[in-house]
Amino acid sequence: MVTKIVVIGMGYVGIPAAGLLAEVDGFDVTGLQRRSSRSGWKIEVLNSGKSPFEGDEPGLDELIAKVVAKGTFRVTDDIEILSDADVILIDVQTPTDPQHVPQYLSLREVSANIGKRIKKGALVVVESTVAPGTTQNVVQSIIEEESGFRGGEDFDLAFSYERVMPGKLIHNIVNLPRIIGGVTPKGAERAFEIYSKICKAPVRTTDVLTAEISKTIENAYRDVNIAFANEMALVCESMGVNVFEVIEFVNELPSRMMHIPGAGVGGHCLPKDPWLLRHGLYEYGSWKLEPEIISLSRRINDQMPIHMAYLVENALNAKGKHIQGAIVTVLGAAYLENADDTRNTPAAALVGALIAKGANVRIHDPFVIGWEFGPHEILQDFKAAVTGADCVALVTKHNEYNSIDFDKLKNQMRTATVVDGRNFFDQKTLEGKGFEYRAVGKAGIRRTK
Ligand code: SAJ
Q1: Residue 269: CB within 6 Å of ligand 1?
Q2: What is the model's pTM?
């Protein structure tokens, strides 16, 4: 007896999940991807047995090739396949708007499509990160309204959050513990049966709200800790010490784990999930509470790319150069090293801040081709990106930047200034070669009286 699984959303979460499920004997998996201009091209790429990601994703190409060849995985834009699905995974994006309110357009559309077609007895699992309370109050309500079914009776519903990370998409699904929150215990149990087939780590079950809150707190925790590290970086810069030496000393205590300060916090999780937690509290909490720490932490982290632009200006001024009209090369468009994911990348905010200061900006990234927002073509040719530049500012520590020849770079640049957003370069080496060096969290800023 074959279990028919439909995974809605062929992104960083849906593709590895679909591939791993399609490997399981008895599972037949169809990826459902709408043919939008941004992502419709993935349908053909995946059906040809290839991963659509540029970054390094160990095992993913082989997995997709294997299950496509095996005939247990294919991708379509035909939503009618939902009517024959035994299990439906929802893996669509749940972004927040500038006012930090969740934009559930995709989630609502997908829930309605499911509701119109779901067959009796099906299991629906929300994998997308949502504001606590959403699985029941949005997804279940829409499916019930469209189908006339009752959740927990005519179909089962659960929330099971992903912990994927570009570069470890398969690794994290297989090796990190899985939490499943059932709208009913039966929903949790049925989802447990599915995930225990692909997850080698413990698979835990709880209620749906506890699972939704666990996910958003898990990321809010990380964002708050990064914000603390970023604020301490600014303290150390102002006091003229190296925050990374301070962090090393502090973390020698087993009960301390300071995170790493840097050019900012990007990705599809941390910039969004704290706001989803806050929204769930507003919508479904029993009393109004402003979670001040997570809101303030988001503002501190979002300020770091702006601080990077200040460091660029400070370095140029130290070389007698005004930022107005200067050529600044940003190294890294992706939000994470050795990946091609640009969602919420700090590079975008840095580029905006530099342009606002009158700089001419170039962007280099070995993995990101084309630029989803802003007027800048991403350069893959390092020499072209740095030749004639007055400043090079590193936002993403791609491995390629380990092999920069600074003697050569100095000759290629018009003004020798470097700003290091990820504690990536050695300050003494660069200053010894005549570069004006600034870095998040390190001494160097000249107090301008
Ligand atoms: N960052 C810092 N300092 C740090 C850690 C990260 O500035 O100490 C920055 C990174 O440069 C990046 C952003 O934060 O711009 C996010 O980095 P991340 O390592 O958290 O990477 P993500 O966004 O892919 O995080 C994912 C999350 N996983 C999911 O929500 C599914 C996160 O919960 C995990 O903790 C993280 O992977 C991980 O550690 O694997």
Answers
A1: yes
A2: 0.92
